[in-house]
TrEMBL record:
Origin superkingdom: Eukaryota
Lineage: Eukaryota, Metazoa, Ecdysozoa, Nematoda, Chromadorea
Keyword Cytoplasm annotated: no
Name of the protein in its database record: Uncharacterized protein
Keywords from the named record: Membrane, Transmembrane, Transmembrane helix
Organism for this UniProt entry: Heterodera trifolii
Length: 404
């Protein structure tokens, strides 16, 4: 018989036990159920139209915290977020999901909602608010089918006939000037938001901001020069002179607000929160009267007349355009650019206090000529020089000049 080599015989391999297949739905179901037991859904809560997602999230958290305060829930939510994708053209707010620390807080909130919902819905922006617990897909489907059955059993009554507006003899409908169409939706984002939020940076805004920035810079320098020469010159110590310096100071405050526009346009933000903008550019208004002037102040009355004409004229043109553009220009964007043009003219007038005083007042002209060479350390003497060119000598004598 043939001998069998034992070394060539391989022992049979033991069958390894394979782990059971993982069922992800089965493993995650308990976790989802635990989260649903401590989650609330706010439906109909107004949604922020802020550009930055962080600002929208912050406002949603503040709104959810206020509602939980009304419901007497002594806990902060662990997570607050909207369901669905953010869309500027969306007319209804997205549901807000609020995850509480424990299921007990969810029960307390639902009990408080049953007691306080009438009082909460009495507020102007919470008339459509509804608070419910988080539901699974099967529960949402059953709830949807139940609503369909109720609609089929109880159909909505027919809508009353629409009353046509009164007509004149030429059969033209008479519509009040402030009457809005029924299809208008007050929750629709304004056209400015849709226009300037889609393009960053917006070169149209940058062009307008550059013009305002240049005018504001020149205006601040020129108005500061009026204040400086008024302080430095003893002859400009009359009441009218002080009022002109005060007017220049207010114009400096006015034109300093344009640098916020410059920063927003060049940084690419284009839009910021209205409350933040109000805090930055808020300037208190001070009232002052013009007392009776003496004979010396009559010299600057002509300058004062020109300044008032230019400044008040710029404001009148701007206000007149704003009051008429709603009837003449249908597009809000075009109307806004028209207001920018009139505002540029207004700011040119606000920056013209110094040039007007220099051109129309002898005292201010002399004060400017006396003080500015001291600032810039200019030498008014003519220096003698003898350049040589083709054997010809050119000579200029030195002399001291008094500029009148």
């Amino acid at each position: 018989m043939k001998r069998i080599n034992a070394s060539n015989i391989t022992p049979p391999r033991a069958k390894r036990a394979m782990p059971p297949a993982l069922d992800l739905d089965q493993n995650t179901a308990p976790l989802e159920e635990q989260e649903r037991q401590r989650t609330l859904v706010f439906i109909g809560l107004p949604e922020s139209n802020a550009i930055r997602p962080s600002e929208r999230v912050q406002e949603d958290r503040e709104a959810a915290t206020k509602i939980l305060d009304h419901l007497e829930v002594e806990a902060e939510p662990t997570a607050v977020f909207r369901l669905g994708r953010f869309d500027l053209q969306r007319t209804t707010p997205r549901p807000l999901k609020v995850v509480m620390p424990t299921p007990t807080h969810q029960h307390v909130a639902l009990g408080g909602w049953k007691r306080e919902r009438a009082r909460l819905r009495s507020q102007q922006n919470l008339t459509r608010l509804f608070v419910r617990p988080a539901l699974s897909k099967e529960q949402l489907k059953e709830e949807y089918e139940e609503r369909l059955r109720k609609r089929q059993q109880n159909p909505a009554p027919p809508a009353p006939p629409t009353q046509l507006p009164k007509t004149t003899n030429d059969q033209t409908p008479v519509v009040a000037p402030n009457q809005k169409e029924a299809s208008d939706d007050i929750s629709k984002p304004p056209e400015f938001l849709l226009e300037f939020a889609k393009e960053t940076p917006n070169w149209k805004l940058i062009s307008c901001a550059s013009i305002f920035g240049i005018i504001a810079t020149l205006g601040i320098v020129l108005n500061c020069s009026v204040i400086y020469v008024t302080i430095r010159t003893k002859s400009l110590n009359g009441t009218v002179n002080y009022l002109l310096a005060l007017c220049s100071f207010f114009e400096i405050l006015h034109q300093s607000g344009h640098f916020l526009f410059v920063y927003i346009a060049f940084s690419g933000q284009n839009l910021i929160d209205f409350r933040l903008a109000t805090k930055i550019v808020f300037i208190p208004a001070f009232g002052f009267g013009l007392p009776s002037a003496d004979q010396i102040n009559l010299r600057v009355f002509r300058s004062l007349y020109y300044i008032i004409t230019v400044n008040i004229g710029g404001y009148l043109i701007c206000v007149l355009f704003v009051s008429l553009n709603t009837h003449l220009i249908p597009s809000p964007i075009t109307a806004w650019y028209g207001q920018v043009i009139t505002a540029i003219l207004l700011n040119i007038g606000a920056a013209s206090n110094g040039p007007i005083l220099y051109l129309t007042s002898t005292e201010y002209r002399q004060a400017f000529r006396d003080e500015f060479p001291k600032i810039f350390k200019q030498n008014l003497n003519v220096i003698q020089f003898s350049p040589q060119q083709n054997g010809t000598t050119f000579t200029a004598s030195s002399r001291q000049q008094q500029i009148l």
